[in-house]
Write the C-alpha cells for this entry.
Amino acid sequence: MPHKPFHLFPRKNSKGKNIWYVRFYDDAGNRMTARSTGQTSKAAAETWAHEQLKKGIIPTEKNITFSKFSENFWIWDTCTYVKNRRRRGANISQTYTERMRGLLIHHILPHFKDKKLQKIKSRTIENWLDELSMKKKGTGELISPTTVNRCLTCLKIMLKEAVRLDYLLKSPADGIKQFRESPKKKSILTMVEVRALFQYDRIKEVWGGDLKHYTANLLAATSGMRLGEVQALQIQNVHPEYVSVNYNWDYKYGLKEPKWRSYRNIPIPTKTRKYLYDLIITSPFQEPDDFIFYGVDRKIPIWGKHVLTILYNALEIIGVSPDQRKERNITFHSWRHFYNTMLRASGIHDAKLRLLTGHRSEQMTDRYTTFNLEDFRDVLQIQENMFNMGHIPNFHTSIDSSL
C-alpha cells in the first residue's frame, strides 16, 4: 500500500507548544525539507498539507522541469508569488504581471522549458543571455539590452521563488550582472517652443481649437503629471490652488492607484487653473467623479494615442518636424522632464521636488533633469566675461607663479 505523499511530526516552539511540521516526498520516495504547517493539531496539519498539494504550492517532484514550475507563474489569480505579494501590500499591478508573463512566454520558456530546475546553472543562464542579446525582433532589429535585462529580472524573481519553495537550495542567477543599457535620453522643448504651443491666440491654429487637448498638455507641463494621471483626473481632484493626484488610468484595467502609490497635491498656476475650470463648466458631465478629459462618455477618458497624435500635430505646426521630434525623443512624457528641469533649475529643493513628481530617489530626479543650451546662458556670460577682456594675462607666468 503506497504511503502518503507526506510525513507529519510535532516540534515544540519557544513557548513549549506543539507545532506540526511536514515533510513531503518526491516521486522517487525521497523526503524533502521539513516545513511548518503552523497548525497545533495533527488533523488540521493533515488538512493543510493536502491543500498545499491540491493547490500545487508544495513541490511533489524533486527534479521538476522549468516548464512545470512556471505554468502558472505571473498569472494574476493563480500565481503563488503574485498572491503572496498582493497579500503583503506590495506595489504590483496586473499590467506588470502581464508584461512579465509575456517575457516568460516569448523569451525564457523557449530556452528553459525542458530543463530540470536543479540542472540550471549560472553558465546556462549566461549562455541564454548571450543568445538573447543576439536575437532579432520581427523588425530585424536586435532585442534591446533593456529587454534582455527585464528578462533576467523576471528569471531571477522566479528562481528566488523556487528557492523559497524548496525546489532549489540557491538560485543560479545570483550574481549575474545586467547588460549595460544606453537608453535614448529624452530632451525637452525650448521655452520659445513652449510659449508657441500655449499662446492663447493660437489655440485654433496650433491645436485645431481643441481646448481639451490644449489643457491636458498645459496641465502636464505645469504639474509634471504622467499621461495616465492626466487622463484619470476627475472634477473632485481640481481645487482652487492645486490638483490632487489620486488615480492613474490604465487602458485595460481602468482606474488604479498612481505609480509607486505616489498620491500627491500639486500647485497649479493661474493659467492652468483657468482652463481646467473652463473645461469643467462647459462639460456635459458634472458629477464629482466624472473625468475632466472625458472621451466617448463619462466612464472613459480621452484615448492616450489620440493625445499623442494631437500633440505631435501641434509640434509640427510650430516648426518641430516629425524627424526632429523623433531625433530629440520628444513625447508627452517629456512634459514631466520639462517640469522637473524647470523647477530644479529655479532652485526648488530636490526633496520638495520629489514630493511633487512622485519620484522615489535622487537618481530618478537626476535622470529627469534635462537642460537645453539656453539654460546655460549664465555660464556662457561668465565665459564671455572671462575671455573677452582688453588685457589677456600671461598664462605661463600665472602657472609658474602658482607653482
The first helix runs from residue 42 to 55. The first strand starts at residue 6 and ends at 12. The two ends are 94 Å apart (CA to CA). Confidence is low (pLDDT under 50) at residues 386-403.
